[in-house]
Structures are given as structure tokens and as C-alpha cells.
Amino acid sequence: MTYLHQADVTSSNIAKAGYDGQHLYLLFNSGVAYKYPNVPQTIYTALISADSVGSFFHKAIRNVFQHEKLEVHQF
What we know:
alpha+beta, five-stranded antiparallel beta sheet
């Protein structure tokens, strides 16, 4: 899947972030990917530009938005 917005990020836990206009997609360094529905673009933009991507994820995304593990992913 190709996303409208896609970025490699520098993080010890997250490898890539994708955004399709409504859903945030994260590929973790472990190879596991998750989809976060109904995430505003401002959150995606803040994530990829954060000084600490991991800290931003834990503060603003992890326990805030529902998520589902993706069985198949392609960045």
C-alpha cells in the first residue's frame, strides 16, 4: 500500500510512518505494523517532525487512538 504521506523516521522503535488522509500507519523496527484510525493530519505532521518520535508516540498516540495490527504491510 502506498500512502498519501509517507516518511522514514529516526527512532529506536519506529521505522516509518504513513498517512492516507484519515489513518496513521506505523511500521515498528520489529517489523510489526499498526493502523490508527481517525488520526488528524496535525498529529501525523507533529509525529514525523518531533525531536523524539518515540516520546511523541507514547504521549499523543499510543493510549489515545485505537489501533489494529496489520498482517500485511508495505511501505
